[in-house]
Structure formats: C-alpha cells, structure tokens
Predict the structure of Universal stress protein.
Amino acid sequence: MFKHLLVPTDGSQLSDSAVERAIDFARETGARITFFYAQPEPPMQIYGDGPVMDAHAPERFAKLAQSRADETLGKAVEVATAAGVAAESRTLVSETPYVAIIGAAEAQGCDIIFMASHGRRGITGLLLGSETQKVLTHSKIPVLVYR
C-alpha cells in the first residue's frame, strides 16, 4: 500500500478539501504526507521608454508568494499533525507547477500524488488544460485525483 503521499495544495477551497481527504487516507493507511506548494514566478518586467513596473516589485511578489506558501502549508501540516499523521512541507518557485509537483514527488520518494481536480471546462480547459491533467499525463508516480 502507499506509505508516502505528496499532496499539492494552493489554499483554494477544493484544494483544502483534498488536503482533508488526503489526511484521512493517510491516517487509514498509516502513510505520511509531504504537502507541496508551487509558488508562481514573479511576473516579467516590461520596459518601454522607462520601466513600467517598480524595480522592487519582483522582490515584493516573491515575499508575498513565500508568505502565502508558508501560511497554506503551515495550516495543512497543523491539521495533519492534529489528526495524528506525520507531515512535512516543501515549496518551490516554478513557472510550470506540474513539473514542480512531479519533481517534488520524485525528490521526496513519494509513492503517490494525491491532488484536487480544479477541472477547467469548455474552451478554457481545452486551451489551458489543468495542472492536474498535466500531472496525470506526465507522472510515472500514481496519481489519485480528489473531486
């Protein structure tokens, strides 16, 4: 059975529900969890005749993203610990979250990725896809999708 889950989270309501279910799953199977948050990269600065963005914006963006990651991961670890599940967390800045998720699962030695489906539909889903879909199609590690 599975012994080490990677649980990507972004702090959304659906992601929080997946975190709760992953904790239940881990408790029932005796597994441990590594929660993962893929931080977005700072937006590119655009220059014209003069800088369009403040030169300190990327630094402020990075601090805000790190703060959001710390808050989201801290909450997940706290809930898991209260439920008696061993848990730790990792975060990484990446422009391609699905690559970061798969890489984190491999680096941490996880034997399953347990993640929420954010399910874009219609033309948006066709054009953009979803990180869950990308993880499903690129991961060699089994993926359990919570809906």
The CA atoms of residues 119 and 130 lie 7 Å apart. DSSP finds five helices and five strands in the chain. The chain has a mean pLDDT of 89.
